[in-house]
Amino acid sequence: MDSINTPIVKLRDVRFTYDGGATWALDGVSLDIRRGERICLTGPNGSGKTTLSRVIAGLTAPDEGHVTLLGNAVFDDAGAHAQAYRAARRGIGAVFQNPEDQIVTTVTEDDVAFGPENLAVAHDEIGKRIAGSLDAVDMGDSRASDPTRMSGGQQQRVAIAGMLAMNSEVLVLDEPTAMLDPSGRADIMRVLDELQERGTTVILVTHHEDELDHADLVIRLESGHIVGDGPAGESLRLPIRSVGLPKRVLEPRGETIIDVKDLSYRHAGAEHDVFDHLSFSIGKGETVALMGHNGAGKTTLARLLCALTKPKSGSIAIDGIAVSATKRNGTVKTLSRRNRAKLRRTVGYVMQHPERQLFAETVAEDVAYGPSNQGLEASEAADRAMQAMRLLHIEHLRDRSPFDLSGGQQRLVAIAGVIACEPKVLVLDEPTAGLDEEAIARVHGLIHELKSRGVTMLVISHSQEEVNEIADRTIILGESTAVPSTGSAAMGTESSTGQDRMDDGTRDAVERRTWLERLDPRVGMLSALALMFSAFAIGSFWQLLLAVILIGAVVVTGRIDVGRLIASVHVFLAMFVFCGLLNVFFVRTGNVVTNIGPIPITDDGMRIAVLYACRFAVVIVIGAIFLDSTTPTAMTDAFESLLSPFARLGMHAQETALVMSLALRFLPTLGMEAKSVIDAQAARGGGIETGSFANRVKALAAIVVPVFAGAIRHADNLSLALDARCYEEGMARTHWRVMRMRRGDVIACCVVIAYLVVLTALGALM
Fold it and tell me: Which residue ranges traverse the bilayer (predicted)?
């Protein structure tokens, strides 16, 4: 048989269920995919596209059927074959719908290198693949950036680069352009064209009609069944929506309801403003689109308008409420509790990630959360919730858990929960991303309905077609200004200086690495541990002074941002310092200075309390300096190297090191998850920021379930990400970051040893 025509992916009668067979996400799916083909999977939300893509990628085993991937019979009547799956995955790359969980490190080039490292690619070749893959997705100047702090679109580019670097025979992409701007979408489609020309087989899940153009085969799914397949023709294309003419309104009509003047914002630790002296206004009843490249600050602006983030300077007024204002001394005045509650009744906010906006046990309870906080009776709040669900045709989901829904269904529920509050102003951050055509039509219909009711809307979107359909006018975030636009032609005036500035900053960061960042991570880790443990031996103020001098010298010579350092540990610092100061109540030796009730306070107690508090502070600060100057990847490599002698005794050194790295990577993500739920509650008038103490405690308790659900979701997605990047227990890996001792490492070791000797000598003299 001609090998060219032999299927490299073969599925026969595949079935898959998430609920023990009550329903089937895939039901009797059979298909063949041949080398070099581009296959597009289409269909409505919940049709089984993502599930099918994961089966093809070898990341999910079906419940029934036969699956052969790259010549490996991975699943048959005998069940799943683990070794066959491992062999197949080495030739299959996968890009997930949500890129955040696919990123495993906090340095872009390290993340791109992770897959090739697992494939044992040579060091020099890894370097070439990093450069080529990042250039292909236009992220070449962001090698030193932290991808976890990027916009969703930028993260998607990094995730795609990570897969490109693995040189896979088959590439499976689940809606890779859903969060990208038009330029980013064009870049990815160009990359896919080039890969296909080189013989790579491409499987693309998409809701975009124009992405079907170069497909060899389009497969349409509905309710887990293939309902049509064939060449990209009209019969299999997605339904075409009617598109209205672009509205040409340059200035706000009628009375102004949103007024932004000289607004500036900068992320913590960043060198440049996201935007600087941004000014615009929106009239009552207008629907305004907000556009701009990935990373231009669209989501940041939405959060500023909703008082979920504080600007550096400038003013925001919404319906007469001063959301922020700069005082004469340069500080920014925040909302009073009363005005904050008023703002929550006025402004509704649909977030970019709907799964982080849901927190109740059922859909009906979640949608009714906002109306309940407005003081409505339970029956009236339930009626409001039902009306909102009916507007979006999701009333059949009312008794379902929001955590069990598909991404598209979650987005519709999140929108319903906000419109149930009946706000005067509605901010929607990419409300149709990841939705099928029918759901998009529902959202557009809702926007038109709300407009007829006089609701003012600011809609963040990357789709010019969508903007033409719904918006009166467009604001484009460009070079630190809001540029008014009248239609699609104006996109050509968009400035990419925000990305350029970020890239310049990361390029400079590579060149300006401090001596701390250049240390061998093994030296850094052992030195930090030695200094932290020795801090517990500090028993005199002379020893404490020595420790402070050393820390001060490290901070100055290592160019540590003290403000950012303290901000990163202030909670732990306060907690441990408080514990240290408690000694003042328990030490009875020395002279009594005063009494607090029946408790005598002695001079020894005060001295020891201050000493202990400072000692705890030294430990926390040293640890923070190490974490600030060493990436999780470097820590993983160092930890693995230091544990390697114990591997001979049966310890899983490599796996232990990876777990530590992933914990460091995802703990901030879970913190963001909790913050998002808190913001979602606050945006719908929850008691977490404006209620009584009891209500705030109750609201905080309510975040436990969604954060726990988020942790499980991240863990599941992370396990898939490791499989997709070919990580296996006990495997032989190469390393992009090669550890070696240099002169600076020797000097650092000598300084630490000298410090420990002097510290011990001072202790002996006391």
Answer: 528-553, 565-586, 606-627, 746-765
